[in-house]
Amino acid sequence: MNSKIFSSQGSRIIVALLLLGGLSACSGPIEPWVKPYERDRLADPIMLMDGDPVSSAYIQHVYEAREGARGGEGGAGGGCGCN
Amino acid sequence: MTLRRGIAILFLALFASGGAHAGVLPEDRADILYHLYSGGGVDIDGPSVLVRKQVGPSTSFVANYYIDMISSASIDVITTASPYNEERKQWSLGMDYLRGNTTMSIGYTSSVESDFDAKTYSFSVSQDMFGDLTTITLSYALGDDIVGSSLDPTFERENDRQAYGVGVTQILSRNMIAALNFEVITDEGFLNNPYRSVRYEDPGTALGYSYEPELYPNTRTSSALGLRLKYYLPYRAAIEGEYRYFEDTWDIKSDTASITYIHPIGPWTFTAKYRYHDQTGAAFFKDIFSRPEETNFRGRDKELSPLTSSTFKLAAAYEFIGGAEGWKFIDKASVNASIDFLHIDYHEFKDLSTGAAYPDEPLYELDAAIFQLFFSFWY
Fold first, then answer.
1. B271 close to B313: Cβ distance less than 8 angstroms
2. Number of C-beta neighbours around residue B55 at 10 A
3. What is the pLDDT of residues B163-222, one digit of tens each?
């Protein structure tokens, strides 16, 4: 093991997260804290992350043409996942 | 040419929007959109048509056809070239395959212009986990561009682009959902515009400056980290906040933030959005160089200048088919209209069209209106 790797703060955080992950795995599967029957509001179309994909792809295209930045906006679905 | 950048990545998002929810295939729908951008001497309009259809229990296909009809007398064009008209046609095909809690998506996009040809191949995998509270998406896209020039039929250069993305969508509570996306994009090849020039000081001329072709680095790598939070208010309405940090190897760094309010009233849904973007300029951007070939790389693309942009959007949607019964084979249909007012202040790029003598030209400002009208059908 290279002690230099573990001297950095970032590595310590990663190790802590791995340990936390390991402990939570020991305590059994993660219980969904929002039950399927509690997702009525998340299922409302106004809660979709990208309800109009054609329109949002177009406007993203405009911004990529007019500004120097790109990416990171994702198309992450949203909604309730309970259909 | 500036409008061509990012095509490879853009339509990956169009498909990812369907694929990101791993445990469920995207809904069958069709959209017909008319778009119009008008500002800074540039008018771009055209249609975009999307059709998505599930075939069998676990596969969904999507196709999109998109046209930009461009009439340009932009600040770049009127200061160094002639106004022009051109057309860009793009079509895309994609497929999502659902197996258990995993969705695999593939896509292909082709964009063709008289002097530019772009092909993009994309692949993504989404997985639902933790009782469907969390969706993780990994994506990859490969773009192949061929850049030509209408001034020189023998001119042909290539650009290869790769985009790597990872995203997490997380249900935080019964009222709140969040999405975190990280994307790295690399370009290698011919990245500048074959028509655009930079200017340099030339005291011997009447203007006080002359032009030479711009020259960009052959590589660019960018990273972007975006966070979105959406919250269902105590009454039936939603509010969304979004932030993105961006940086690249050309020394552009940017912050982009927006806030959106969505309010339905009966069959109507009204949306208001404000978006703010602030960026530093590329290391090789200069409004004017002190002499020809002053630096190894040179650019005067206004999008690479330090700038601040703000957009205010208003949108209204009306659901004209809905309820439990629908109409014939259509379950739901809506018509949507929106307008975005975009204003950009360029902090170093000067306006050479005013007639002011060098070096007293004012900084350039852009105002544009972006209009969209579209019909959506779910079946």
1. yes
2. 10
3. 999 999 999 999 999 999 999 999 999 998 888 899 999 999 999 999 999 999 999 999
Smallest Cα distance from A25 to chain B, Å:
12
pLDDT of residue B108: 95
Nearest CA in chain A to B373: A55
ipTM for the whole predicted complex goes beyond 0.95: no
Query: pLDDT tens for residues A69-81?
Result: 999 887 533 333 3
B-contacting residues in A 13-72 (Cβ below 8 Å) = 30-34, 36, 38-39, 41-42, 44, 46-47, 49-50, 52-72
B1, B4, B7, B17: best to mutate for the A interface, most A CBs within 10 A: B17
Largest CA distance in chain B: 77
Among partner residues B31, B177, B368, which is closest to A47 by beta-carbon distance? Answer: B177
Going from the C-alpha of A8 to that of each of A1, A18, A22, B163, the distances in angstroms are: 14, 16, 21, 29
pTM, full prediction: 0.87
Q: Which domain holds residue A15?
A: 1-31
- pLDDT per residue, tens digit, chain A (83 aa), is 344 444 455 556 556 656 655 555 555 566 778 888 888 999 999 999 889 999 999 999 999 999 999 998 875 333 333 33
Q: Are residues A48 and A23 in the same domain?
A: no
- Contact between B33 and A63 using a beta-carbon 8 Å cutoff: no
- CATH no. of B2-378: 2.40.160.40
Q: Does one domain contain both A43 and A26?
A: no
Interface residue B75 vs chain A (CB under 8 A): no
Q: Could you tell me if A10 and A44 lie in one domain?
A: no
Mean pLDDT over B347-365 rounds to: 94
Q: Specify whether the CB–CB gap between B317 and B228 falls below 8 A.
A: no
* B255-269 average pLDDT score: 97
Query: From the CB of residue A7, how many other CB atoms can be counted at a distance below 10 Å?
Result: 9
The verdict on a CB contact (< 8 Å) between A66 and B338 is no
Pairwise CA distance, residues B22 & B134, whole Å = 10
Distance in Å, alpha carbon of B319 to nearest chain A alpha carbon: 12
Whether residues A25 and A48 share a domain: the answer is: no
Tell whether B174 is within 8 A of chain A (Cβ). Answer: yes
Same domain, A55 and A81: yes
